Amino acid sequence: MRSKLIIGLAVFAFLLFFIPKVGAASGQLYQVDSEKLMVRASADPQGEIVAELQQGDLVTVFQNDFGWGRTFYNGQEAWVAVHHLVKLDEQESSDEQEAQVNNDERNSKENEKKRKTEKEPAEKN
């Protein structure tokens, strides 16, 4: 009887300490798929809100745990509800980043044009 108890405890300890949680060392990139997503200090719907993400924002999740994704905000561990996220593969994420860079360049050029036209004196009829 005593040996069965020891074996049972050993199996329990093995399961408790050696079965990894779902996650990746380098993280997985996701995109926010809802209007707003609260970044929380704990994996709890009532946890302290530390930030707010908008639809289309990108977030790296390092671990999924019971519907919550572990990430980092300002160097501190933070959590987001993963049902508000869409997983991006590497090609999609590089396309997203390239599109963002192109969009930023276009906006910068448009703003520069606007500033130049504002500085030009108005022509008189």
CATH superfamily of the domain at 22-88: SH3 Domains
The description of the largest β-sheet is: 5 strands, antiparallel
Class by SSE composition: alpha+beta
| Poorly predicted spans | 20-24
Helix-strand sequence: HEEEEEEEH
Protein name: SH3 domain-containing protein
Pfam families: SH3_3
Domain SH3b: 39-85
Region (Disordered): 90-125
Q: What does the model show?
A:
This protein is an alpha+beta fold and 125 residues long. It has a domain of 67 residues: SH3 Domains (SH3 type barrels, Roll), CATH 2.30.30. 38% of the residues lie in helices and 35% in strands. It contains two helices and seven strands. A hairpin with an 8-residue loop joins strand 2 and strand 3. About 4% of the residues have low confidence.
Short description:
This is SH3 domain-containing protein. The protein has 125 residues and is of the alpha+beta class.
Write the layout of secondary structure elements.
Blueprint: H1 2-18, E1 23-32, E2 36-40, E3 49-54, E4 58-65, E5 68-73, E6 76-81, E7 85-87, H2 90-119
Antiparallel strand pairs: 1-4, 1-7, 2-3, 4-5, 5-6
Fill in the keyword field for this structure.
125 residues, alpha+beta, SH3 type barrels, five-stranded antiparallel β-sheet, 38% helix, elongated
